[in-house]
Amino acid sequence: MTAPADVRPHNVATREDALDLYRVFLYLFGFPSRDRFDRICRRDFPEALKNLWRELHGPGEFPRLRTFEQYAQYESAYIALFDVGVPAPPVPLLESAWRKSQPAQQVVLDNVNFYEVLGLRCDQSHYPPDHLLTQLEFLAAVRYAQESVGAAGNRNDLVTLERDFLARHLLVWFPAAAEKLRALDPPVFPSLATLLEAFLRFRLQMARFRSRTR
After folding, report:
1. Per-residue model confidence (pLDDT) at position 5
2. Cα–Cα distance measured from residue 93 to residue 90, given in angstroms and rounded to the nearest whole number
3. Strand partners, 94
4. Separation in Å, CA 15 to CA 22, 78, 136
5. Which of 58, 67, 85, 187 is close enough to 53 for a disulfide, judged by CB 3.0 to 4.6 Å?
6. Model's pTM, two decimal places?
7. Which of 189, 191, 170 is nearest to 94 (CA)?
8. Which domain holds residue 186?
9. How close are the terminal C-alpha atoms of the chain, in Å?
10. Cα–Cα distance, 49 to 53 (Å, whole number)
11. CA–CA separation, 26 vs 134, rounded Å?
């Protein structure tokens, strides 16, 4: 199962119109909780993923979602995949762990520079600036600002901000993390990662399309 290489944002009306999918994925990739586990195990959850895959023009049918039978399995798998390992977890959710061509400090600083455009500060007691959840939270804030701003010029600047952050950060490292998850093939997480990668590509193409037509 691979993420689509080409989506057509000007031809697709997605649930993005009514739902901030950045925040949805921020929630789904959050540290395990009973609430998250219950939602993932809902009977309508697999169908919701399939529908989103179609809206994002994913190739073929979305595979059957494999879930965890017990909360303890879900929690331990999350920790073993993303949080704990020697010398590092198998799939760290940190950009600096995947971008070996740049010093980690430079990767972190570039993230922080983007956040400061919106006057945002990263609380590193929760997650580092280059963590997936921090990056998704920033993009959710950018999307909200796009919808809230009055002047068209300011909105265009925010579209450019989203485009550049996706192109220079998330889509530089997250596809490799998603591919590693697909290779390891635990329940749930490869499917979520594949959908997130497809969504990020969709948003990038949407931003590029808006930049060309403004």
Report:
1. 39
2. 10
3. 131
4. 12, 27, 18
5. 58
6. 0.88
7. 170
8. 9-213
9. 35
10. 6
11. 9
The residues, any chain, with a CB within 8 Å of residue 102's CB and separated by 6 or more, are 96
Does a structural domain hold residue 133? yes
Q: Could you give the CA distance from residue 37 to residue 123 in angstroms, rounded to a whole number?
A: 26
Number of domains in the chain: 1
Q: Is the pLDDT confidence value at 11 over 60? A: no
Domain contains 115? yes
Q: Is 145:157 a contact under the CB 8 Å cutoff?
A: no
Task: With respect to residue 3, please indicate whether it lies within any of the assigned structural domains.
Answer: no
Q: What is the pLDDT of residue 72?
A: 97
Residue 213 binned pLDDT confidence (cut-offs 50, 70, 90):
low
Whether residue 1 lies inside any domain: the answer is no
Q: 53 and 195 in contact (C-beta within 8 Å)?
A: yes
pLDDT digits (tens, 9 = 90+) for 145-181: 988 876 666 888 899 999 999 999 999 999 999 999 9
Buried b (16+ CB within 10 A) or exposed e, 40-63: beeeebbeebbebbebbbbeeebe
DSSP notation for 24-58: HHHHHTSSP-HHHHHHHTSTTHHHHHHHHHHHTT-
> Both tokens of residue 89?
């977890």
Q: Where are the alpha helices (DSSP H) in the chain?
A: 21-28, 34-40, 45-55, 71-78, 95-98, 104-117, 132-148, 152-165, 171-184, 189-213
Q: In 3-state terms, what secondary structure has residue 75? A: helix
The CATH number covering residue 205 comes to 1.10.3480.10
